[in-house]
């Protein structure tokens, strides 16, 4: 069976799209990190199609990814090699034909695809952080107005005090504290902006902390201060599956860590001038006082 451009003179259609004959289609290649992150490469004699499945860990990221890719595909003519509709099972597709390779610099096309793959996760993470920050601001404004209204309506009613956090050392965090609000201090070893997780370090012990609610463009400068001292307040949770560990710096050794335990932080504050040794002694004295030792 002859292909379309073999039958009709001076008509050259991308065979990876037309699928006129199997002999001009090369073997497709799938490069996969996991089931949620993969790239499908479909080459042919005169064109190549690349389809990308972007990492989406929760419903917010799925919505943002859909909006982001839809925005780009509606403007596909501006990107030239972008396909208006992705291949089923993928989020976005690129179609590169022999015309593109003849009229454009090949290495620039490759650089564009690679840069897109490198930047798309970062872009979605920033969009997610901005969305969380805006939601937090709206919630705080609403609750502040609600509290003021309740005080005016019921001036004799005493508003409930917020739950106090239990001050603990990082090495003392275990399953007995699950569900409790805790406060602890340690060094920021690494941060993953795609998952919102940081690795908190203290004397060779590590702990995962979810700081998604505490990082934005204005209040997240401390995430760039590696080995900086921070105080975390949040709730300890135990998960059925292990969380991904943020990438460690090359100069750091791997600490002892339980990947199923995580602190859902509600407040993170940098404390660069904290005397950590004195802070730990204060906790030990307080614990001995409570236990009657």
Describe the structure.
The longest helix has 48 residues, at 106-153. This protein has helices at 4-7, 15-18, 59-73, 76-79, 98-103, 106-153, 276-291, and strands spanning 29-34, 37-43, 47-53, 92-97, 166-167, 181-192, 197-202, 205-210, 229-238, 261-270. It is 33% helix and 25% strand. The mean pLDDT is 83. Strands 6-7-8-10-9 form a 5-stranded mixed beta barrel. It has a 4-stranded antiparallel β-sheet with strand order 1-2-3-4. The N and C termini lie far apart (89 Å). The chain is α+β, with helices and mostly antiparallel strands.
Write the layout of secondary structure elements.
Layout: H1 4-7, H2 15-18, E1 29-34, E2 37-43, E3 47-53, H3 59-73, H4 76-79, E4 92-97, H5 98-103, H6 106-153, E5 166-167, E6 181-192, E7 197-202, E8 205-210, E9 229-238, E10 261-270, H7 276-291
Parallel strand pairs: 5-6, 8-10
Antiparallel strand pairs: 1-2, 2-3, 3-4, 6-7, 6-9, 7-8, 9-10
The largest β sheet comes out as: 5 strands, mixed, barrel
Q: State the helicity in percent bands.
A: 25-40%
How many extended strands? 10
Read across the widest sheet, the strand sequence of neighbours is 6-7-8-10-9
Uncertain runs: none
Label the overall shape.
elongated
Instruction: Write down the Rg.
Output: 27 Å
Distance between the termini: 89 Å
Structure annotation, total helices: 7
Order of helices and strands: HHEEEHHEHHEEEEEEH
Q: What structural category characterises the helix and strand content? A: alpha+beta
- Strand composition percent: 15-25%
